[in-house]
Amino acid sequence: xxxxxxxxxxxxxxxxxxxxxxxxxxxxxxxxxxxxxxxxxxxxxxxxxxxxxxxxxxxxxxxxxxxxxxxxxxxxxxxxxxxxxxxxxxxxxxxxxxxxxxxxxxxxxxxxxxxxxxxxxxxxxxxxxxxxxxxxxxxxxxxxxxxxxxxxxxxxxxxxxxxxxxxxxxxxxxxxxxxxxxxxxxxxxxxxxxxxxxxxxxxxxxxxxxxxxxxxxxxxxxxxxxxxxxxxxxxxxxxxxxxxxxxxxxxxxxxxxxxxxxxxxxxxxxxxxxxx
Length: 276
Hints:
Layout: H1 4-7, H2 14-40, H3 47-53, H4 64-77, H5 79-95, H6 97-115, H7 121-125, H8 128-140, E1 147-150, E2 155-158, E3 164-167, E4 172-175, H9 177-180, H10 225-242, E5 243-247, E6 269-273
Antiparallel strand pairs: 1-4, 2-3, 5-6
Helix pairs in contact: 2-4, 3-4, 5-6, 5-8, 5-10, 6-8
């Protein structure tokens, strides 16, 4: 998908032709699996079984094509976003290694010595500095450039400059995390990678409502936020303790041609194995 896909999902462009061909290939793979499980009346403890067993309010079940759509959504919703955020976290940390890396390495030493090298959910939750580093990467380079919500009833909005206006019922409201996360009246030195801005007791994103929307916000915020942080923390905890990194060339620019915004290529680092 590309940004155009949001507004014209069936536009006759090369990206959509590749998308549709890939979906047909996935359908051929998953359809056999779904149908075989239905015919065998088998029950497995996995997400596929959850979709097969799901029922609408009228009692009807999901078709094989609908199950496929749900599987694709689950597969890609967390894959691109987490992998790209992992990449940006590494690139920004390495690009600012003299300023940022000592704090992260010191935390890894402290936490690992305390728990004897063990990593689990509770241990990862103690890695606050790594959490801030990931969150700051998300602030500067959110994977999704646009979030959309439909207005179900009119509501009044007051801007930071005091201007008021009403959003009518039925309108689509769009916000860009990539833009709002760079507002200097919300985040100090907004174009600077500064994980410390999220430290307690006065994190910058808590001074104004919904300042940080890397995972969306409100009732329909991303359900995978906690899992995403744990996943990326696991990756970078291991990498920080086992390798030294150096950025080769300049920090890559964001690639806004993709639906999920990662760095442009080349995206090159040099690394050397070590034990922290």
